Amino acid sequence: MSIICDHVNYIYSRGTSDEIHALKDVCFKIEDGEFIGIIGATGSGKSTLIQHLNGLLKATSGHIYINGEDIYDSDYSLKKLRSRVGLVFQYPEHQLFEETVLKDVCFGPKNQGLTSTESQMRAYEALENVKMGEDCYDVSPFDLSGGQKRRVAIAGVLAMKPEVLILDEPTAGLDPEGREEILHLLKSLHDEQGITIILVSHSMEDMADYAERLLVMDKGSLIMNGSPREIFQNSAILEEIGLSVPQVTGVLREMRQKGFDVDISATTIEEAADSIMRALGL
Questions:
Q1: CA-CA distance, 20 to 205, in Å (whole number)?
Q2: Chain-centroid distance, C-alpha 37
Q3: What is the four-CA torsion angle of 58, 160, 156, 189, rounded to 10 degrees?
Q4: pTM of the full predicted structure?
Q5: pLDDT tens column, 200-221
Q6: In CATH, which superfamily holds the domain spanning 3-245?
Q7: How far is CA 87 from the centre of its chain?
Q8: 277 burial class (0-12, 13-18, 19+ CB within 10 angstroms)?
Protein backbone atom coordinates (compact mmCIF):
# COMPACT_ATOMS: atom_id res chain seq x y z
CA MET A 1 0.00 0.00 0.00
CA SER A 2 1.38 3.39 -0.98
CA ILE A 3 0.50 6.58 0.89
CA ILE A 4 0.86 10.07 -0.54
CA CYS A 5 0.49 13.18 1.56
CA ASP A 6 -0.11 15.99 -0.96
CA HIS A 7 0.25 19.60 0.26
CA VAL A 8 -1.63 18.86 3.48
CA ASN A 9 -2.55 21.70 5.83
CA TYR A 10 -4.47 21.34 9.06
CA ILE A 11 -5.77 24.14 11.28
CA TYR A 12 -7.19 23.48 14.73
CA SER A 13 -10.08 25.77 15.85
CA ARG A 14 -10.11 27.45 12.46
CA GLY A 15 -11.62 30.92 12.44
CA THR A 16 -11.35 31.39 16.20
CA SER A 17 -8.91 33.21 18.45
CA ASP A 18 -7.44 29.80 19.37
CA GLU A 19 -6.56 28.93 15.76
CA ILE A 20 -3.42 26.79 15.43
CA HIS A 21 -1.82 25.94 12.07
CA ALA A 22 -0.70 22.41 13.04
CA LEU A 23 0.35 21.13 9.59
CA LYS A 24 1.81 23.35 6.88
CA ASP A 25 1.98 22.18 3.26
CA VAL A 26 3.23 18.69 4.15
CA CYS A 27 4.21 16.48 1.20
CA PHE A 28 5.74 12.98 1.14
CA LYS A 29 5.22 9.46 -0.19
CA ILE A 30 5.48 6.17 1.69
CA GLU A 31 5.99 3.04 -0.38
CA ASP A 32 4.59 -0.39 0.43
CA GLY A 33 6.67 -2.26 3.02
CA GLU A 34 8.78 0.63 4.31
CA PHE A 35 9.78 1.20 7.94
CA ILE A 36 9.34 4.93 8.45
CA GLY A 37 10.30 6.99 11.50
CA ILE A 38 8.71 10.34 12.28
CA ILE A 39 10.66 12.62 14.61
CA GLY A 40 10.23 16.14 15.92
CA ALA A 41 10.02 18.10 19.15
CA THR A 42 6.80 18.22 21.19
CA GLY A 43 4.23 20.25 19.27
CA SER A 44 5.90 19.72 15.89
CA GLY A 45 2.81 18.10 14.37
CA LYS A 46 3.76 14.41 14.50
CA SER A 47 0.60 13.12 16.20
CA THR A 48 -1.63 15.38 14.11
CA LEU A 49 0.03 14.09 10.95
CA ILE A 50 -0.42 10.39 11.65
CA GLN A 51 -4.12 10.89 12.43
CA HIS A 52 -4.54 12.10 8.85
CA LEU A 53 -3.12 8.89 7.41
CA ASN A 54 -6.18 6.80 8.35
CA GLY A 55 -8.75 9.58 8.10
CA LEU A 56 -9.27 10.32 11.79
CA LEU A 57 -8.56 13.96 10.95
CA LYS A 58 -9.43 15.58 7.63
CA ALA A 59 -7.02 18.07 6.12
CA THR A 60 -8.09 21.70 6.03
CA SER A 61 -6.60 21.68 2.54
CA GLY A 62 -4.60 19.18 0.50
CA HIS A 63 -5.12 15.48 -0.12
CA ILE A 64 -4.21 12.02 1.17
CA TYR A 65 -3.94 9.29 -1.48
CA ILE A 66 -3.97 5.58 -0.67
CA ASN A 67 -2.90 3.45 -3.65
CA GLY A 68 -3.74 6.41 -5.86
CA GLU A 69 -7.25 6.94 -4.42
CA ASP A 70 -8.17 10.20 -2.71
CA ILE A 71 -9.53 9.30 0.73
CA TYR A 72 -11.55 12.53 0.72
CA ASP A 73 -13.66 11.44 -2.28
CA SER A 74 -17.32 11.19 -1.29
CA ASP A 75 -17.54 7.48 -2.14
CA TYR A 76 -14.31 6.46 -0.38
CA SER A 77 -14.86 4.13 2.60
CA LEU A 78 -13.04 5.49 5.65
CA LYS A 79 -14.21 2.48 7.66
CA LYS A 80 -12.39 0.16 5.26
CA LEU A 81 -9.35 2.45 5.33
CA ARG A 82 -9.12 2.20 9.12
CA SER A 83 -9.05 -1.58 8.85
CA ARG A 84 -6.17 -1.37 6.39
CA VAL A 85 -4.25 1.38 8.21
CA GLY A 86 -4.07 0.55 11.93
CA LEU A 87 -3.26 3.31 14.41
CA VAL A 88 -1.88 2.56 17.87
CA PHE A 89 -2.03 5.61 20.12
CA GLN A 90 0.44 6.44 22.88
CA TYR A 91 -0.31 4.35 26.00
CA PRO A 92 -2.71 2.08 24.05
CA GLU A 93 -3.21 -0.11 27.11
CA HIS A 94 -5.50 2.63 28.43
CA GLN A 95 -7.95 1.48 25.76
CA LEU A 96 -8.10 -2.11 27.05
CA PHE A 97 -11.52 -2.76 28.56
CA GLU A 98 -12.70 -6.36 28.13
CA GLU A 99 -12.74 -9.06 30.82
CA THR A 100 -10.04 -11.17 29.19
CA VAL A 101 -7.14 -10.72 26.80
CA LEU A 102 -8.81 -12.87 24.14
CA LYS A 103 -12.08 -10.92 24.28
CA ASP A 104 -10.21 -7.64 23.98
CA VAL A 105 -8.32 -8.73 20.87
CA CYS A 106 -11.54 -10.12 19.34
CA PHE A 107 -13.26 -6.73 19.60
CA GLY A 108 -11.82 -5.23 16.39
CA PRO A 109 -12.55 -8.18 14.08
CA LYS A 110 -16.11 -8.41 15.44
CA ASN A 111 -16.59 -4.73 14.58
CA GLN A 112 -15.48 -5.59 11.06
CA GLY A 113 -18.45 -7.94 10.82
CA LEU A 114 -16.59 -11.22 11.28
CA THR A 115 -18.26 -14.14 13.05
CA SER A 116 -17.29 -15.10 16.59
CA THR A 117 -15.23 -18.03 15.27
CA GLU A 118 -13.47 -15.90 12.64
CA SER A 119 -12.75 -13.21 15.24
CA GLN A 120 -11.24 -15.76 17.60
CA MET A 121 -9.03 -17.18 14.85
CA ARG A 122 -7.81 -13.65 14.06
CA ALA A 123 -7.20 -13.03 17.77
CA TYR A 124 -5.22 -16.27 18.20
CA GLU A 125 -3.00 -15.35 15.24
CA ALA A 126 -2.46 -11.77 16.42
CA LEU A 127 -1.60 -12.86 19.97
CA GLU A 128 0.85 -15.41 18.60
CA ASN A 129 2.43 -12.65 16.46
CA VAL A 130 3.03 -10.50 19.53
CA LYS A 131 4.45 -13.48 21.48
CA MET A 132 1.61 -13.77 24.02
CA GLY A 133 1.19 -17.36 25.19
CA GLU A 134 -2.10 -19.22 25.58
CA ASP A 135 -1.79 -18.99 29.36
CA CYS A 136 -2.63 -15.28 29.02
CA TYR A 137 -5.77 -15.63 26.88
CA ASP A 138 -8.25 -15.92 29.75
CA VAL A 139 -6.41 -13.49 32.03
CA SER A 140 -7.68 -9.96 32.66
CA PRO A 141 -5.55 -7.53 30.61
CA PHE A 142 -5.31 -5.35 33.73
CA ASP A 143 -3.30 -8.07 35.49
CA LEU A 144 -0.50 -8.00 32.91
CA SER A 145 2.81 -6.13 33.00
CA GLY A 146 3.18 -2.84 31.16
CA GLY A 147 4.97 -4.43 28.23
CA GLN A 148 2.41 -7.24 28.00
CA LYS A 149 -0.48 -4.76 28.01
CA ARG A 150 1.19 -2.86 25.19
CA ARG A 151 1.57 -6.07 23.17
CA VAL A 152 -2.09 -7.00 23.71
CA ALA A 153 -3.15 -3.54 22.55
CA ILE A 154 -1.04 -3.94 19.41
CA ALA A 155 -2.53 -7.42 18.88
CA GLY A 156 -5.99 -5.83 18.94
CA VAL A 157 -5.00 -3.73 15.93
CA LEU A 158 -3.16 -6.57 14.17
CA ALA A 159 -6.28 -8.76 14.45
CA MET A 160 -7.93 -6.44 11.95
CA LYS A 161 -5.23 -7.38 9.40
CA PRO A 162 -3.85 -3.91 8.61
CA GLU A 163 -1.42 -3.41 5.76
CA VAL A 164 0.06 -0.39 7.54
CA LEU A 165 0.70 -0.11 11.28
CA ILE A 166 1.18 3.39 12.72
CA LEU A 167 2.42 3.71 16.30
CA ASP A 168 2.71 6.88 18.38
CA GLU A 169 5.54 6.50 20.93
CA PRO A 170 4.85 2.77 21.50
CA THR A 171 7.68 2.39 24.03
CA ALA A 172 6.75 5.38 26.21
CA GLY A 173 6.80 4.55 29.91
CA LEU A 174 8.17 1.02 29.50
CA ASP A 175 11.22 -0.38 31.23
CA PRO A 176 14.24 -1.25 29.01
CA GLU A 177 13.15 -4.90 28.65
CA GLY A 178 9.59 -3.98 27.66
CA ARG A 179 10.91 -1.35 25.27
CA GLU A 180 13.15 -3.83 23.48
CA GLU A 181 10.31 -6.36 23.26
CA ILE A 182 8.09 -3.87 21.45
CA LEU A 183 10.79 -2.71 19.05
CA HIS A 184 11.82 -6.28 18.17
CA LEU A 185 8.15 -7.09 17.63
CA LEU A 186 7.77 -4.22 15.15
CA LYS A 187 10.90 -5.27 13.29
CA SER A 188 9.60 -8.83 13.10
CA LEU A 189 6.23 -7.69 11.73
CA HIS A 190 8.03 -5.61 9.13
CA ASP A 191 10.66 -8.15 8.11
CA GLU A 192 8.59 -11.34 8.24
CA GLN A 193 5.10 -10.16 7.26
CA GLY A 194 5.92 -7.13 5.12
CA ILE A 195 3.73 -4.78 7.13
CA THR A 196 4.50 -1.11 6.55
CA ILE A 197 5.53 0.41 9.88
CA ILE A 198 5.24 4.13 10.66
CA LEU A 199 6.81 4.85 14.03
CA VAL A 200 6.71 8.12 15.99
CA SER A 201 9.48 8.28 18.59
CA HIS A 202 11.63 10.71 20.56
CA SER A 203 14.48 8.17 20.71
CA MET A 204 17.12 8.89 18.09
CA GLU A 205 18.82 5.59 18.98
CA ASP A 206 15.65 3.65 18.16
CA MET A 207 15.27 5.50 14.88
CA ALA A 208 18.87 4.80 13.93
CA ASP A 209 18.48 1.10 14.75
CA TYR A 210 15.10 0.39 13.16
CA ALA A 211 13.87 3.01 10.67
CA GLU A 212 14.81 2.89 7.01
CA ARG A 213 13.77 6.50 6.40
CA LEU A 214 13.01 9.47 8.64
CA LEU A 215 10.52 12.31 8.29
CA VAL A 216 11.53 15.30 10.43
CA MET A 217 8.78 17.66 11.56
CA ASP A 218 9.20 21.17 12.96
CA LYS A 219 6.39 23.59 13.80
CA GLY A 220 3.99 21.78 11.48
CA SER A 221 6.34 21.57 8.50
CA LEU A 222 8.25 18.62 7.07
CA ILE A 223 11.81 19.95 7.02
CA MET A 224 13.83 16.81 6.20
CA ASN A 225 13.15 13.45 4.56
CA GLY A 226 15.92 10.87 4.19
CA SER A 227 17.77 7.89 5.62
CA PRO A 228 18.89 8.03 9.28
CA ARG A 229 22.48 8.34 8.11
CA GLU A 230 21.56 11.36 5.94
CA ILE A 231 19.38 13.01 8.59
CA PHE A 232 21.86 12.63 11.45
CA GLN A 233 24.57 14.35 9.42
CA ASN A 234 22.58 17.56 9.94
CA SER A 235 23.23 17.83 13.67
CA ALA A 236 23.12 21.64 13.68
CA ILE A 237 19.61 21.68 12.20
CA LEU A 238 18.44 18.94 14.58
CA GLU A 239 19.79 20.78 17.61
CA GLU A 240 18.14 23.99 16.43
CA ILE A 241 14.72 22.30 16.49
CA GLY A 242 15.28 20.59 19.84
CA LEU A 243 16.50 17.18 18.67
CA SER A 244 19.85 15.41 18.86
CA VAL A 245 21.87 12.77 17.06
CA PRO A 246 22.27 9.23 18.45
CA GLN A 247 24.78 9.08 21.31
CA VAL A 248 27.20 6.93 19.32
CA THR A 249 27.28 9.52 16.53
CA GLY A 250 28.14 12.21 19.06
CA VAL A 251 30.93 10.06 20.54
CA LEU A 252 32.43 9.44 17.10
CA ARG A 253 32.46 13.15 16.33
CA GLU A 254 34.32 13.84 19.56
CA MET A 255 36.83 11.15 18.62
CA ARG A 256 37.29 12.70 15.18
CA GLN A 257 38.01 16.06 16.81
CA LYS A 258 40.71 14.35 18.88
CA GLY A 259 42.37 12.99 15.74
CA PHE A 260 40.92 9.50 15.41
CA ASP A 261 40.03 8.48 11.84
CA VAL A 262 36.50 7.27 12.58
CA ASP A 263 33.36 7.30 10.45
CA ILE A 264 31.24 10.13 11.86
CA SER A 265 28.28 9.08 9.71
CA ALA A 266 27.82 5.87 11.75
CA THR A 267 24.49 5.86 13.60
CA THR A 268 24.23 2.46 15.30
CA ILE A 269 26.34 0.78 17.99
CA GLU A 270 27.42 -1.92 15.51
CA GLU A 271 28.56 0.65 12.94
CA ALA A 272 30.35 2.69 15.61
CA ALA A 273 32.14 -0.36 17.01
CA ASP A 274 33.35 -1.39 13.54
CA SER A 275 34.59 2.14 12.85
CA ILE A 276 36.44 2.40 16.17
CA MET A 277 38.06 -1.01 15.71
CA ARG A 278 39.30 0.00 12.26
CA ALA A 279 40.60 3.34 13.56
CA LEU A 280 42.53 1.55 16.30
CA GLY A 281 43.87 -1.04 13.88
CA LEU A 282 42.20 -3.93 15.70
A1: 31
A2: 6
A3: -100
A4: 0.90
A5: 998 999 999 999 999 999 999 9
A6: P-loop containing nucleotide triphosphate hydrolases (3.40.50.300)
A7: 9
A8: exposed
